Amino acid sequence: MLSGRSVAGQVFVLHLMIVLLLVVAAVVALVLQVRRDSTQEARNRSLAVAETFANAPGVTEALEAPDPTAVLQPRAEAVRKQAHVDFVVVMNTDGIRYTHPKPDRIGRQFVGTIAPALAGEPVVEEIEGTIGQLVQAVVPVEDPDGRVVGLVSAGITTEHVGGAAEDQMPLVLGAALAALALATAGAALVSRRLLRQTHGLGPHEMTRMYEHHDAVLHAVREGVIIVDGDGTLMLANDEAHRLYGLPEDAEGRHVRDIGLDPGTADLLSSGRVATDEVHLVGDRLLAVNQRPTDRAGGPPGSVATVRDSTELRALSGRAEASRERLNMLYDAGVGIGTSLDVTRTAEELAELAVPRFADFVTVDLFESVLAGGHPDPSGALRRTAMTGIAEDAPLYPKEEKIRWVPTSPQAVSLATGRPVLEPRLGEAPGWQAQDLERSGQIVEYGIHSLITVPLRAGALVLGVVSFWRSRKPDPFDTDELALAEELVARAAVSIDNARRYTREHSMAVTLQRSLLPRTLPEQSALEIAYRYLPAQAGVGGDWFDVLPLSGGRVALVVGDVVGHGLHAAATMGRLRTAVHNFSALDLPPEELLALLDELVARIDQDEAQDEHSAPVTGATCLYAVYDPVSRRCTVARAGHPPPALVRPDRGVEFWDVPAGPPLGLGGLPFESAELELPEGSRLVLYTDGLVEDRRHDIDVGLEELREALSRAGDSPEDTCRVVLESRRPVRAGDDIALIVARTRALGADRVAEWQVPADPAAVGEVRAAVNRKLAEWGLDELAFSTELILSELVTNALRYGGAPIRVRVLRDRNLICEVYDSSSTSPHLRYAAMTDEGGRGLFLVAQLAERWGTRYLPAGKVIWAEQPIG
């Protein structure tokens, strides 16, 4: 009963474990409760003692006495002993002790939290002190005005607070012993009842049990053979007699003497363990399982079960073939179409089918399909993929252009859109007509069977797939034809998707390239180098521009439209065109971005009414204007990364330009920043694809960009090269636009400026001064036209403008004449009638100058005109 092998023993052990678990749970609960009660009592007692002492009469006066310790130390010790706490400490508001049970600690800093008490709130905390785990309370001492003049702390160790665990422990142990006694009695009762149930059966009941056993043994459809330790057959049921053809008197004879095949006789006489060991008996495959009978103290011998697995094997073979086909179709769904590349998708189909289905696979596609277009049935096919178990097969090589003859299986598949099975190539004259010499080489090589399946995507036939067999002697059959058709059907969807993507991608790339600047305009203010790298997949909306402005100034623009595809590229083109138009107005950067923001908002409103259009989301832009005369650069940005500035000493900084909202949000103003740049400085503008990706935050990218700029050479080209080598990812997920501009200055020897008095007679003096400057510059041929231009512009300023009036002439690539006045009224060109006495001045200016216009300033305007030099 106590051994654990009987049910009674197991029940006994279970009862004992339950009782022990209850005992342990009770003890743990008691200890936890005692600990909780001790801690709570310690918190209450320490807080009560501290508050009582802090509010006691005379404490406030003692704290303000010259020697608080002399007054408070005796009182604190008396209270400590009476209240049964471990310490009562009085301290000032800085935490310096006035009292302590150990006098040598008086005057030292109190260890604990006093900030809440200084604020008028008591604080209780548990800490690990030198005397063990303790609870201490700190309360404020307040004068009649409510001001905290000192602190009182009282503490007590938790082990000094009461507990009743020892009193309750005998009761718990007594209950445990009672439970153990009850468990033992219950186990004994169960054991007695089980013994009575197993050994109380009579002969009649036992006989009926064995009859039922015998009936079941001979009724099962599995042979049962029992052999003793000497190899004598003790029992064989009816199924065993049928499967092995045993004689009627087989029981009682040795297994080697009853006509069994040698393999089966050896197995049964050896008594060894066997699991599904197959033996051929006549035309049947019999699976034998054998186990010894003496493992649990039984008699020596073995028991073998036998079943007929002939039909099961046949079914298993067909099931295995079906399973392999299902696995192949599953692998086709997973492994074909992993990329949007037509050639790679065709190669994936060929690699999947070799050698699991065919020995060689070739994929031929119309050439127009490879370019993303519709298939041309009259055009040639190109061998896009070829995979096989060997590389010396005499098939058409990869990249070969092929035109199949009408009688070939491939041509038939292309014409009818249905698969073709040629089980014996050597006997197929239509196939051999393609190329008699090559066909003979193929048959001689050992390729003997062929399946051709058209690559159909809806009504389109994109090409044809050929499956060739050489190693396996059996030809392709109709079941394999259906499998080939299913494989190609799944691959056709992926190839068609890749074809469509190729077409869309080509269109998007063409659109994007047509919208980006092909060459940079000529200008003298900046030496510029740029790079534009498209994303790995698709085209994006990153763009840049260099725009010459009046007065020799140059505008740099970098923008980004979030997203990829035709919509992003088209939106980028619209924004770039808008910036071109707005820049012609010579607006400050912040005003230009405000106009661009309104434009994007209007685009969003227009496209919101069309369910097939998407709004512009996440468009950003940075606009910078550099003046080579003043060497000042003005920058404004709308949600774009800040520009980097590399000074001539190679110091790198990111310009702290106010970050406006992305374009299209509306309602928020844009701000600009202005900085004077030393000549030779490099201004670096970029899009977020350069500094941000999925693996790194933008702060990491900016720091890496700073490091790359610090070690780059002085030239913009070298700067672009170093930056891209250090920052370009292996597979760029976003476009990258980068502009590096090194500043140049227009020297004082190329700039002339005069103040014009508010007197019409001053026009002649200005003309004379300008003529002298032109002669100094060697531009005498422009003197006449310049006189006419300046005369008209200065006269208009005197007549319609306001003082002060200035004239400035710049010698750059062109000769630039500028007239400044304080009026904001802009002149306009008109065509005077024959009878009008005036109104022809600006017409003459427009005829003589290559370009002219108006630039508004915060206080006035500038009328300018440019004439070509040389």
UniProtKB/TrEMBL annotation:
<keyword id="KW-0812">Transmembrane</keyword>
<keyword id="KW-0902">Two-component regulatory system</keyword>
<keyword id="KW-0597">Phosphoprotein</keyword>
<keyword id="KW-1003">Cell membrane</keyword>
<keyword id="KW-0808">Transferase</keyword>
<dbReference type="InterPro" id="IPR001932">
    <property type="entry name" value="PPM-type_phosphatase-like_dom"/>
</dbReference>
<keyword id="KW-0547">Nucleotide-binding</keyword>
<dbReference type="Pfam" id="PF07228">
    <property type="entry name" value="SpoIIE"/>
</dbReference>
<feature type="transmembrane region" description="Helical">
    <location>
        <begin position="12"/>
        <end position="34"/>
    </location>
</feature>
<keyword id="KW-0378">Hydrolase</keyword>
<dbReference type="InterPro" id="IPR029016">
    <property type="entry name" value="GAF-like_dom_sf"/>
</dbReference>
<dbReference type="InterPro" id="IPR000014">
    <property type="entry name" value="PAS"/>
</dbReference>
<keyword id="KW-1133">Transmembrane helix</keyword>
<dbReference type="GO" id="GO:0016301">
    <property type="term" value="F:kinase activity"/>
</dbReference>
<keyword id="KW-0067">ATP-binding</keyword>
<dbReference type="Pfam" id="PF01590">
    <property type="entry name" value="GAF"/>
</dbReference>
<keyword id="KW-0418">Kinase</keyword>
<dbReference type="GO" id="GO:0005886">
    <property type="term" value="C:plasma membrane"/>
</dbReference>
<dbReference type="GO" id="GO:0016791">
    <property type="term" value="F:phosphatase activity"/>
</dbReference>
<dbReference type="InterPro" id="IPR013656">
    <property type="entry name" value="PAS_4"/>
</dbReference>
<dbReference type="Pfam" id="PF13581">
    <property type="entry name" value="HATPase_c_2"/>
</dbReference>
<dbReference type="InterPro" id="IPR036890">
    <property type="entry name" value="HATPase_C_sf"/>
</dbReference>
<dbReference type="GO" id="GO:0000160">
    <property type="term" value="P:phosphorelay signal transduction system"/>
</dbReference>
<feature type="domain" description="PAS">
    <location>
        <begin position="209"/>
        <end position="249"/>
    </location>
</feature>
<dbReference type="InterPro" id="IPR003594">
    <property type="entry name" value="HATPase_dom"/>
</dbReference>
<dbReference type="InterPro" id="IPR033463">
    <property type="entry name" value="sCache_3"/>
</dbReference>
<dbReference type="InterPro" id="IPR029151">
    <property type="entry name" value="Sensor-like_sf"/>
</dbReference>
<keyword id="KW-0472">Membrane</keyword>
<dbReference type="Pfam" id="PF17203">
    <property type="entry name" value="sCache_3_2"/>
</dbReference>
<dbReference type="Pfam" id="PF08448">
    <property type="entry name" value="PAS_4"/>
</dbReference>
<dbReference type="GO" id="GO:0005524">
    <property type="term" value="F:ATP binding"/>
</dbReference>
<dbReference type="InterPro" id="IPR036457">
    <property type="entry name" value="PPM-type-like_dom_sf"/>
</dbReference>
<feature type="transmembrane region" description="Helical">
    <location>
        <begin position="171"/>
        <end position="190"/>
    </location>
</feature>
<dbReference type="InterPro" id="IPR035965">
    <property type="entry name" value="PAS-like_dom_sf"/>
</dbReference>
<dbReference type="InterPro" id="IPR003018">
    <property type="entry name" value="GAF"/>
</dbReference>
<protein>
    <submittedName>
        <fullName>Integral membrane sensor protein</fullName>
    </submittedName>
</protein>
<dbReference type="InterPro" id="IPR052016">
    <property type="entry name" value="Bact_Sigma-Reg"/>
</dbReference>
